Amino acid sequence: MGASDISYWQLALGYGLLIFPMAVFLWHGVPLLGDTFMGVLRMTVQLLFIGFYLQYVFRWNNPWLNIGWIAVMVLVADASIVRGCGLRARIFLLPLSLSLLMGVLAPLLIFVLVIIRPDPLFDARYVIPIAGMILGNCLRADIVGIRGFYESLHKREKAYLHALASGARLHEAAQPFLRDALRDALAPTIATMATMGVVSLPGMMTGVILGGSDPATAIKYQIAIMLAIFSGTAITVTAAIYLTLHGSFTPYGVLKREIFARIEK
Amino acid sequence: MEHEDILNIRNLSVRLDGTQLFRGVSLAVNVGEKITITGLSGSGKSTLLRCVLGFVPFQGEILIAGTPLNARTVWQLRRQLAYVAQEPELGDGTVQALLARPFSYKANQGLAYGREEVDQLFEHFRLPLPLLHKDITSLSGGEKQRVALIGALLLRRPLLLLDEAASALDGEAKKQVRAYLSSREDLAIVSVSHDVRDFVFNGGVYHLPDLATGDS
């Protein structure tokens, strides 16, 4: 037994919920009407496309197709991080893709091969949504971590150069910035875990319950996915910073100005 | 003799963001020599020091203790230098933690953070010891400058680069710092300042444009 379907008419009525935020925006002159319209439109088009596409992914259930789809998700996430951070694509696209792949694949493989062991092993119904959840969180953490790391290095360059002048190697001088970036990127996931089930009913658990499973099964999935997300984000952000270090500094250890797509004066 | 030069700058030119800052600057500093470089604001005095640290791309040659500065040697050569920036920023944390941090770097493994030496330097520079436990952000500009100087001295480098390092000090503090630094015969100093009336060392005083041998 799965979740009962929603007809397109019923869903259209669901858009009626937008009346409340729109009314607030209009009433208070909040300049978010255009953004809201674009956001809702993009969400709708993207999800319609994904829903249509996933029907076939699940029907064919070909491991190569599943891996290919994960690769596409990683690339889209990658481009979105580079754009979101205002960084130069030429320098960051490749190392960030690698860091995302590492952050998604390591916990995904443990989740699939060790924890749930579905049959077939790379069953699309498990692999795709789990990879998507881990990746979505890696994307958010990467934007916070990478942007925080390079922006604070740029803003507080004097402190960084002071460390270099005191004899630090690049990774030693960058260490305080790396620590702050990791803290800022991972703290939200820790906060989410700490309030889980009390403040919010988590998405995966809700999904498993709607799919007809026992709440006891649902919480096990939820705990496992949170652990996978947390380790995935930690791997991604750390790898992203380490993999981009080499291309972002001159051989003298000075941060290159050209890594920023927009240079602040 | 060349091998006695701790710093030798030959025909140095720097162009930043399309502007020629200076051209053909040459300068030699002996071991233990203390010189002052003056010049108008924006003439490139700070940039000259930043070149020696490998922070700014340059044309020409810089030798530190006889070794040419380049991308390969810079990491080793920075162990010959200590630097106090204009309005120094040492990082986050207490004064004590920031003074101790460089001793955790691999390059400084042979050095030890000596609390006695810190106490002595605090006394020389008239800083109260409880300041060690304060957060660096709570210090005044003059206190920060003296803490940065102490941090640089603790590293026991043969060459100290000072960029307007006494600008926030009052007359008395300036005198004390100058007297202490002058007494250190082992220490070569290149101090740049736009105003040298009350912070000048016994060695040469050079006007930056006069150091240029080129046609700038």
- H/E element sequence of chain A: HHHHHHHHHH
* CATH topology label of chain B: Rossmann fold
CATH superfamily annotation of chain B:
P-loop containing nucleotide triphosphate hydrolases
The largest sheet of chain B, given as strand count, sense and whether it forms a barrel, is: 5 strands, parallel
- Total helix count of chain A? 10
Measured distance between first and last alpha carbons of chain A: 60 Å
What proportion of the residues of chain B form beta strands (DSSP E)? Answer: 25-35%
Strand content of chain A: under 5%
Order of helices and strands of chain B: EEEHEEHEHHHEHEE
Give the distance, in angstroms, between the N- and C-terminal Cα atoms of chain B. Answer: 28 Å
What is Rg of chain A? 21 Å
Helix content of chain B: 25-40%
Give me the Rg of chain B, rounded. 17 Å
Unreliable parts of chain A: none
Coarse shape of chain A: globular
Domain module tally of chain A: 2
Approximate shape of chain B: globular
Oligomer: heterodimer
Strand arrangement, major sheet of chain B: 6-7-8-3-9
Structural class based on helices, strands and sheet pairing of chain B: alpha/beta
Give the helices and strands, then pairings.
The complex is a heterodimer of chains A (265) and B (216).
Chain A: H1 8-14, H2 19-28, H3 33-60, H4 63-85, H5 89-116, H6 124-155, H7 157-165, H8 170-195, H9 203-210, H10 215-248
Chain B: E1 5-16, E2 19-30, E3 34-38, H1 45-52, E4 59-64, E5 67-68, H2 74-77, E6 81-84, H3 95-100, H4 115-124, H5 141-154, E7 159-163, H6 171-183, E8 188-192, E9 205-207
Parallel strand pairs in B: 3-8, 3-9, 6-7, 7-8
Antiparallel strand pairs in B: 1-2, 1-4, 4-5
